[in-house]
Specification:
The protein is α+β, with helices and mostly antiparallel strands. The chain has two domains: about 1-175, Ribosomal Protein S5, domain 2 (2-Layer Sandwich); about 180-340, Alpha-Beta Plaits (2-Layer Sandwich). It contains ten helices and 14 strands. The longest helix has 25 residues, at about 230-255. Strands 1, 3, 4, 5, 6, 13 and 14 form a seven-stranded mixed sheet that branches. The structure holds adenosine-5'-diphosphate (ADP) and magnesium ion (MG).
Length: about 350
């Protein structure tokens, strides 16, 4: 049996998914492909890692295989028996590029197992189990965005999620004469995961200072009263980013893509200046793109410190990209790559 599990991008709503905020992700047509078959013992192979692993009892390995093994463990904890299988993994979704290959791996594994075992696990439950796998088994304190996007997305739609209630709705993406693109900067800075955890702590500290238990109850006025400049800027990002998600929803409804683009730029500068999760390479790409009026907006996607940017543009964007890529290469010695974004349905069988 064959299962395809997509990567995701996020139109807007960055670093809000662990702050009870709003997000607007969608799945993209880049997939991890799983071939699964019942077997006498567990045998997992990844073409990207050029490595396999065999075992009878699932246990932590501190390697890429933990995303798969963790799903076996978590499904069992949730009362689903998992019989041994061979699992063959192949992928055209870049790893560590901010496109959520980790969640694609978790959700795809969970879905493949459920299909093999004949379980009807609903997609929210699958997303929640995969999220538990990443947080509790792999040990990355991520929000719910990636697993929800991979499990629940629908073609031609973005997924609006209220991460506080985990309620969601589908938002049609009418892009008219514009298109979305992803540019992979080709860099991933090591400090990413420690800074990520630091941001989470800073947000918790900001809440404490404001005497609030959730960002949902925080207003701009509350933020203005914070004395500590750093905590104030972190909180300012979260509150304004949530507003931008809601404003983007209305702009999409009104087919006002110029406005959507403006919010993307605003989101980027808030992530850069207030949340401080951008980096030199990414900022260079954004500033170059701003020189072109056909580029309506762009911003960093994912946790930050490298990875990819999302771009909303009209006309011949490939031509613009070539020029931007050329100057990027001269400055940093790295060739960035362009991905023409098409939306995809979430994890599925073929
Ligand atoms: P992102 O989710 O943004 O791609 P992460 O650092 O969260 O970045 O996850 C990347 C990790 O997921 C890789 O380092 C690897 O351990 C695992 N992974 C992703 N895709 C594959 C694959 N095709 N085969 C094996 N492991 C993979
Ligand atoms: Mg990830």
């Amino acid at each position: 049996m064959v299962v395809y599990s997509p990567g995701r991008a996020n139109l807007i709503g960055e670093h809000t998914d662990y702050n009870d905020g709003y997000i607007l992700p969608f799945a993209i047509r880049r997939y991890i492909k799983f071939e699964i078959e019942p077997a006498k013992k567990f045998k997992i192979f990844s073409h990207q890692q050029k490595k396999g692993i065999e075992f009878e009892k699932p246990a932590k390995t501190n390697s890429w295989a933990d995303y798969v093994i963790g799903m076996i463990v978590k499904l069992q904890e949730h009362g689903y028996k998992v019989e041994p299988f061979t699992l063959n993994i192949d992928s055209d979704l870049p790893m560590g590029a901010g496109l959520s290959s980790s969640a694609a791996l978790e959700v795809g594994t969970g879905y493949a197992i459920s299909q093999m075992m004949g379980y009807e696990i609903n997609r929210e439950e699958l997303a929640n189990i995969a999220h538990e796998c990443e947080v509790e088994f792999v040990g990355v304190r991520c929000g719910i965005m990636d697993q929800y996007a991979v499990a629940l997305s629908k073609e031609h739609h973005a997924l609006f999620i209220d991460t506080m209630t985990r309620e969601y709705k589908y938002v049609p993406l009418h892009l008219d004469d514009t298109k979305l693109y992803l540019i992979n900067s080709g860099v991933k800075h090591e400090l990413g995961s420690s800074e990520y955890n630091k941001r989470r702590e800073e947000c918790e500290m900001a809440l404490e200072v404001m005497k609030k238990t959730t960002f949902r109850d925080v207003t701009i006025e509350d933020v203005e009263k914070i004395q500590d400049h750093l905590l104030k800027r972190r909180a300012l990002h979260v509150v304004t980013e949530n507003e931008r998600v809601l404003k983007t929803l209305s702009a999409l409804e009104d087919d006002n893509l110029t406005l959507v683009g403006k919010y993307l730029y605003e989101s980027h500068y808030s992530l850069k200046d207030n949340y401080e999760v951008s980096c030199e390479e990414i900022d260079f790409l954004i500033e170059k793109l701003r020189e072109y009026s056909n580029v309506l907006g762009a911003r960093i996607v994912g946790a930050g410190f490298g990875g990819s940017i999302i771009v909303l543009a009209r006309g011949n964007f490939e031509g613009i990209f070539e020029r931007v890529a050329e100057s990027y290469k001269i400055k940093f010695g790295i060739t960035p790559t362009l991905l023409n974004v098409e939306t995809s349905e979430g994890v599925h069988r073929v």
